[in-house]
Amino acid sequence: MQRRSLIKNLALLTGGLTVPAVLKAQPSGKPIRIAHITDTHIQPHIGAAKGFERCLHHIQSLETVPEFLINGGDAIMGLHGASESSIDRQWELFSKVLKSENGLPIYHCVGNHDIFKKDNSRENFESGKNQAKDQLGINQSYYEINKENWKILVLDSIQSKIEGKGYQGKIDEWQMEWLKSKLQESRQQNQFVMIVSHIPILSACVFLDGKNFKNGEWRVPETWMHGDAEELIELFDNYPNIKLAISGHIHLNDRIDYNHVTYFCNGAVSGNWWMGNYKKTAPGYAIIDLYPDGRFSNQYLKYS
What we know:
Strand order of the largest sheet: 4-5-8-11-13-12
CATH topology: Purple Acid Phosphatase, chain A, domain 2
């Protein structure tokens, strides 16, 4: 189905869904409009596929349809110890919904649930990440998107621990060198920058995702927020053209303005894993507008 006719038909499919006719007033100049969908956690249970369909219909029925989607990771439920056939079915369902219900280009970010591990070895971790890249149709787990005078840098924030048990939120040394070179390039080319990661680089809601105040101290695991946040923020301080960083992972919605960068954690399409709201955050997605003068907006929308 052609994109134009698909979008036209989707307007009829939304039924009673509330579609905002007009979003908040924005600065002048035609923006690059992006829909940030994250944490769909597709599984063949509890209506996950139907919920994902409703989200895609809602996005494509907006008065101003986004130019493209960014999938922020955790496309599937995954689960350590699940059978390979179960994981294959989840990927098949994710791809089926995108193929049948989405007419927009999409860029993907790898999430921790996307990485299938037979055991805790580093070898299986890397193999699982390669399988996720194949399923998502990306050659590299970190890459750039250049749109007009904006550079969007998609990071891979899911790294294996040295001892091979589990994962940690950070970028490795090779990716750090790549990031530095791309930021230098953005300055030379007079581009504004948006950073995309699955795990938040900096977030407030991570403190409230569970009982994290124990024995008189706050404890935030490195699986919930980048363990190299301080190093990244010090790097960002050198580049005032970095305007915003977006993430998912926590299923909660927050905004932090720190120095010159704004950090958005943009909830989850699946909400509380398809059981409604997670705390006060409804299942949803973000509409991001990137303006030619470096201004931006990030609005979190419910789709049902």
